[in-house]
Write a structure and sequence with these properties.
This protein has 7 helices and 14 strands. By secondary structure, it is of the alpha/beta class. The protein has one domain: 4-Layer Sandwich (Metallo-beta-lactamase, Chain A). Strand 3, helix 1 and strand 4 form a beta-alpha-beta unit. It is globular, with a radius of gyration of 18 Å. The structure holds zinc ion (2 copies). The site of one zinc ion has 5 residues, from loops.
């Protein structure tokens, strides 16, 4: 059994306001770990949005931190929490970050920009702990930790270089696709995406827009609820979490959207729900 905890479920920018606090206002960050005796000792973190600061608040300040993060891409909402992730500012702490590079900028060069004046007063190399940023190519890799989880990396369509991730851990499959450009018909799914998601126990997928909103924002790099469902159905996944909620989406709207997919869920036998900050799942 694997454990999944949502620390940030919002897309584009943080949006802490009364109307959406039930689902949460922090941007992309999901923690996955093996449900063995080690607990959160070997954390795998998808994206470093402002949800990462909420994770920091839950960590024991007397302990050093060690973990690995897979970043979907370098848009601000997916990395904004890293400068404030104080657990790595401690001697002995280590965070390994794997992320896609841009055509003219490696992931390391991009993070160096983030950790530089005037954007932030501390440089990466000035932290007391260690942040190691590694380039990442599509393919599969085995993590050097108990249980040897396997991560498969694949390009997904967005506005810049973006990865989707398939994690096999404790005999379960969790797929993370934070930002994903839907096609105009909201139906045809790339073969590579179907392959990445195939028979997953949980698919965490971009669902930023309604079909009506997509009419105006079809080139903004994101999915509709219907397209997320299409990806899930065509890939035969067991459960689908709508993710990367539009910052303007209220809790009441998300309740209504969840309810509107109940019939699809019953007909397909697939669990469909909207991810919310603080949600903990056992897969
Ligand atoms: Zn995003
Ligand atoms: Zn993006």
């Amino acid at each position: 059994m694997a454990k999944v905890e949502f620390f940030g479920v919002r897309g584009s920018h943080p949006t802490p306001r009364t109307e959406n606090l039930r689902f949460g206002g922090n941007t992309s960050c999901v923690l996955v770990y093996s449900d063995d005796d080690s607990g959160r000792e070997f954390p795998i973190i998808f994206d470093l949005g402002t949800g990462l600061t909420r994770l920091a608040q839950e960590l024991d300040p007397s302990q050093i931190f060690s973990g690995v993060s897979f970043v979907s891409h370098l848009h601000f909402d997916h990395i904004q929490g890293l400068p404030f992730f104080w657990p790595v500012d401690r001697v002995g702490s280590r965070l390994r970050i794997l992320a896609p590079s841009e055509v003219d900028l490696t992931a390391k060069e991009s993070f160096d920009l983030l950790f530089s004046s005037p954007f932030f007063p501390v440089k990466l190399g000035d932290l007391r702990g260690e942040i190691v940023i590694e380039p990442l190519d599509p393919g599969s890799m085995t993590l050097d930790q108990p249980g040897n989880p396997i991560v498969t990396v694949s390009h997904v369509s967005h506005t810049n270089s973006t990865y989707g991730y398939r994690l096999e851990i404790d005999g379960k499959v969790i797929v993370y696709i934070a930002d994903h450009q839907a096609p105009l018909d909201s139906h045809s799914v790339d073969d590579s995406v179907v392959e990445l998601c195939r028979a997953a126990d949980l698919l965490i997928h971009d669902a930023q827009y309604t079909s009506d909103e997509f009419q105006q924002k079809s080139h903004w790099g994101h999915s509709t609820y219907n397209f997320a469902v299409q990806v899930a159905l065509q890939s035969g996944v067991k459960s689908l979490a709508f993710y990367h909620h539009d910052p303007g989406r209220t809790d009441d709207e998300l309740d209504r959207i969840e309810k509107s997919f109940e019939a699809v869920a019953i007909a397909s036998g697939m669990l469909v729900f909207a991810a919310r900050e603080g949600m903990k799942l056992e897969i």
